[in-house]
Design a protein that fits this description.
The complex is a heterodimer of chains A (484) and B (503). Chain A is mainly alpha-helical and 484 residues long. Chain A is built from 21 helices and 2 strands. In chain A, strands 1-2 form a two-stranded antiparallel sheet. Chain B has 23 helices and 2 strands. The chains are: A mainly alpha (484), B mainly alpha (503).
């Protein structure tokens, strides 16, 4: 093994930026900003953190391509695009944090967000089981902390505990699965594993390992039946944390597992074009996708809480994204990545609107949105863009994400094609609950005594950037698709 | 000929400007909206004067849009789409004139109205199935908000029902199109590419795919069991929006059936042809009978729309050049007449009397109080019944003659529907405008006598005259439109479908 430490250092510059940024925020907060008020400390921490994230983005853009450090890391188009998306979504989540209620320890909060981002960017690029697991754990542990950061609220504590318990359980399954894969193939590098799996075929032990890996994947993606944490975390976590969990973490998770499943375990996928073919992970993923589509869309109909609605819509979107994973073997990662990143944009934006409203009063129920068009036309307009994109209305990006994934799934044929038709049918169901949100925001009159909502300039910029990106990526999807 | 794409951009620009102007005053917003709508209509008319009819789609713009899927930004026009583009401009302009009294959130109203209009222009201009679908969906969302915010009578229900039916229909269309595209390995979404891809599929799949696409579009055209969104939605909508919905948006569905579904799979069409024809004639008669017993005047008009759209579907199902050209003519004719009827009922009568119940209207001497409204309603009613001299006559006659060739029984039942239409129209005219006010007897007498309504405004008169002029012009000289439509039916793709499904 030729250890190329210089190459490794240059490939890991984005992560270095993020970690150094986190340390800088903590250090400055302990020394220079110590005597300032909480709001000012948050502003300073976010400014330094934002700078670190932007630097990380620049480094990721300019960084090397191809395998690094003997194939431990791979900087292929998927990794580069995912890193870019994680960095961008983290930046937007920082913008949301600026407009949300200030946490009690602002510097620590921002530092943990940066640490999570570092874990996520590393996940996107890792091509080795051990590094991948460590990156996943770095990101997950940071996200557990972020979910429970607001210790004073019992809901936040409940959300964090649930997230932590489910998450560690999933991590244990994943590690067990990884150890089985290592035991079978004698390697932790994906290219070597792929070669060995291709030679061995789908042995029973490998299938056990795959099931364990899929449990962890289902958890990360909030897919049914591993979704139970999602509604509570979306509801209880501080809004910027929820925004990060729902967007950047999802993008990195899908990239990581898609890489694990196709280049790593692609030989054990099973039959793509027919139902009930040979054993493999595709039928299992198809089952999870069908469950998520049905459960997410139908349960969302019954929600009255806005955040829980977003959580169930996230579960439904996970089902559609799993179709993208199933189709990735034939169609490549472009449809999956386009869908998940534009979905992340819309979700961050929706949480941004919630954050702005929470600062002025409460925003728990969908009915709390009533009269938003009068209280803040900016928020109402942006929310309309985000929700309609989630619903998949052209020319917004959400529609094209669905279009690309469904077209890829139909080209793949077999169960993926049947599920694509199911997903298209369910999109009409989804329109009902999305319109119910917009009905409150744009049609209903404001509640008595509702005041106009003041939106901080940074948050306004964040929301406009997210909405603008959704429109732009919708009008010209080739900007993203052309990168693959 | 490259004027037409500007209609889409001009309408979108008008939406933005109207939204901005609405922050200043409602007056500024409505003048902005009127200027852009009339401007777009002017563009379509200017393009029409230079139009050379022919069998081919005349490409206006053709740019790659999403190369990885072969989706192109391809805009083109032929006689069929030109007819409907002119109708869109007319209906949009008249709709704004009849929305002159909107004062609440006026900027947003006209912005949504113009976005809807832009989507409609886009659908009629698209020559790429996916581009058409994008514009089709752009037209759905504004409908919901126009009804839910500015509507009347159970508006939340009507708006949601209409949006969900439209969206479910379009989901079927998308599923069908993507299926053909993926399973047939089409390089793109052009009409010919999709037709070639569909021809590769096995017969059973072609039948299913055709059903997805045709019934998806036909939902929006108000085909019989899927029509229930139309009366509730149109009744709940504000006047300008119901004029646009019944006048133009239902045509989107019929146009999709004609342009996308029929050429897609002649085999699928041959299988479904009798079903479609029967559903169409059932719709004609059933909706007419329902209209006959309505107590709400606007519901009469709402069901009459479904009945008249049944003729369009029958014309498409009969699938010979005569019937199809009649169907396109009927699309234009119904667009104008339904707009006129909704304008009288929603704006001229309801906004003044605040009732649409026939029993209450009967008690008002409306023909003396609102003579202009009464005159326009009578003219529109006569046109709607299909009397000679108005556009409904050549349209329905051509459809009946054409469908007689395809299946005499369908034509016979549909002809029965014409009688029913005459009955419910005459009943509506009689009860609403020529009722007998109770004789001023004793105590209640003076109250009824002193009712005064604000006079019909200039905007209303202008809008009504535009629409009446259009229906009379086409009624007297249907060749104006038929000369555009007939050559377009000679295109190879439509010919394949028009051979009655025989490949």
């Amino acid at each position: 093994m030729t250890a190329d430490y210089l190459g490794l250092a240059s490939a890991l510059r984005p992560e270095a930026c993020l970690v150094l940024g986190a340390l800088a925020v903590l250090g400055l907060d302990l020394s220079v900003w110590r005597r300032r008020g909480a709001g000012e400390r948050l502003g300073c921490a976010l400014a330094v953190g934002g700078l670190a994230v932007i630097l990380a983005g620049v480094q990721a853009w300019m960084g090397p391509r191809g395998p690094v450090f003997d194939g431990v890391l791979i900087l292929d188009p998927l990794a580069r695009a995912t890193r870019g998306a994680v960095v961008g979504l983290t930046l937007l989540a920082l913008g949301v944090a600026h407009g949300a209620k200030a946490p009690r320890q602002p510097a620590e909060y921002v530092a943990v967000m940066l640490a999570a981002a570092a874990g996520l960017t590393l996940m996107a690029a890792s091509q080795q089981l051990l590094l991948g697991f460590l990156a996943l754990e770095l990101a997950s542990l940071s996200l557990y902390v972020l979910a429970g950061f607001d210790r004073a609220r019992p809901e936040a504590a409940e959300a964090a505990l649930k997230y932590f318990l489910f998450g560690t359980m999933a991590a244990a399954f994943l590690l067990f699965g990884f150890s089985l894969v290592y035991g079978l193939t004698g390697s932790i590098g994906l290219p070597e594993i792929a070669a060995q799996v291709g030679r061995l075929g789908a042995s029973p032990l490998l299938l056990v390992a795959i099931v364990m890996i899929l449990v962890a994947f289902g958890f990360k993606a909030a897919a049914a039946p591993f979704h139970l944490w999602a509604p509570d975390v979306y509801q209880g976590a501080p809004t910027p944390s929820a925004a990060l969990i729902a967007s950047a973490s999802k993008v990195a998770g899908f990239a990581f597992f898609a890489r694990l499943l196709w280049p790593g375990l692609g030989a054990a996928a099973g039959a793509t074009r027919s139902f009930g073919g040979g054993p493999g992970w595709l039928p299992a993923v198809a089952g999870v996708a069908a469950g998520s589509l049905l459960l997410g869309n139908l349960a969302a109909l019954a929600q009255s809480s806005l955040r829980r609605l977003l959580a169930y819509s996230a579960i439904a979107h996970s089902g559609a994204l799993l179709l993208g994973v199933m189709a990735a073997g034939q169609a490549g990662y472009a449809p999956l990545f386009y869908y998940v990143s534009t979905y992340g944009l819309a979700t961050v934006g929706a949480f941004g609107v919630i954050a702005a409203l929470e600062r002025e009063g409460r925003c728990e129920e969908i009915a709390d949105l009533a009269g938003l068009h009068r209280r803040s036309p900016l928020l109402a307009g942006c929310l309309a863009v985000f929700v309609l994109s989630l619903a998949g209305i052209p020319p917004l990006a959400g529609f094209f994400g669905k279009l690309f994934v469904f077209a890829a799934a139909l080209r793949t044929g077999g169960p993926a094609a049947a599920l694509a038709v199911l997903a298209i049918a369910l999109s009409a169901v989804a329109l009902y609950y999305y319109l119910a949100v917009l009905k409150q925001a744009l049609v209903a009159a404001p509640a008595a005594g509702a005041r106009p909502v003041a939106v901080s300039r940074v948050l306004a910029l964040t929301l406009l950037a997210a909405a603008g990106l959704i429109v732009w990526l919708g009008l010209d999807p080739s900007v993203l698709l052309g990168r693959f | 000929m490259s004027l037409l794409p500007w209609t889409i951009l001009l309408s979108l620009a008008g939406a933005v400007l109207a939204l901005a102007a609405g922050r200043r005053s409602a007056r500024a917003a409505r003048w902005t909206a009127l200027a852009t709508a009339a401007g777009s209509w002017g563009l379509t008319l200017a393009a029409a004067t230079r139009f050379v009819p022919g069998p081919r789609l005349q490409t206006l713009v053709d740019l790659p849009w999403i190369p990885s899927l072969g989706i192109r930004c391809h805009l083109a026009v032929d006689g069929i789409s030109l007819t409907l583009l002119v109708l869109t401009g007319l209906a949009a302009t008249a709709g704004i004139l009849f929305s002159w009294n909107i004062t609440e959130r006026a900027g947003e109203f006209f912005a949504l109205f113009l976005i809807l209009v832009a989507g409609v222009y886009g659908v009629f201009l698209s020559a790429d199935a996916l581009l058409l679908f994008v514009f089709y969906e752009i037209a759905i969302v504004p409908k919901y908000f126009l009804i839910a915010i500015w509507g009347s009578t159970n508006r939340g229900y009507g708006a949601m029902k209409l949006a969900l039916y439209s969206f479910a229909g379009s989901a079927l269309v998308l599923a069908g199109l993507l299926w053909v595209y993926a399973a047939g390995g089409a390089p793109g979404f052009g009409w010919a590419e999709l037709a070639r891809a569909a021809a590769i599929l096995p017969r059973e799949q072609q039948i299913v795919v055709f059903a997805f696409v045709f019934f998806g579009f036909a939902t929006l055209a108000g085909i019989f069991p899927l029509h229930t969104w139309a009366p509730t939605g149109h009744v709940a909508a504000p006047t300008g929006a119901s004029m646009l919905l019944a006048g133009v948006v239902m045509k989107l569905g019929a146009y999709g059936c004609l342009r996308v579904a029929l050429p897609l799979s002649p085999i699928g069409f041959a299988f479904w042809q009798p079903t479609i024809a029967w559903l169409a004639v059932i719709g004609i008669v059933y909706a007419g009978l329902v209209a006959l017993v309505q107590q709400d005047l606007k519901f009469v008009i709402g069901y009459s729309s479904v009945s008249h759209m049944g003729f369009v579907l029958l014309g498409l199902a009969a699938a010979n050049p005569q019937a199809v050209s009649g169907a396109v003519l009927q699309m234009f004719s119904h667009g104008v007449i339904a707009g006129l009827l909704f304008a009288v009922v929603g704006r001229m009568v309801y906004d003044r009397t605040h009732t649409r119940r026939l029993s209450e209207l009967e008690a008002l001497p409306l023909r003396r109080l609102l003579p202009f409204a009464a005159a326009v309603f009578v003219i529109a009613g006569i046109a709607s019944m299909g009397l000679p001299g108005f556009s409904g006559f050549p349209a329905e006659l051509t459809i009946l003659v054409g469908s007689w060739r395809a299946g005499p029984i369908w034509a016979a039942v549909a002809a029965l529907g014409v009688l029913v239409a005459a009955a419910f129209t005459l009943r509506a005219i009689q009860l609403a405008f020529f009722g007998s006010p109770p004789a001023p007897a004793g105590s209640a007498g003076p109250a009824a006598a002193v009712v005064q309504f604000e006079p019909i405004t200039v905007a209303e008169k202008t809008g009504a005259l535009l629409l009446v002029g259009a229906t009379v012009l086409v009624g007297l000289k249907p060749d104006l439109l038929l000369n555009w439509i007939n050559p377009a039916l000679q295109s190879p793709l439509l010919q394949a479908a028009l051979r009655g499904g025989r490949p």
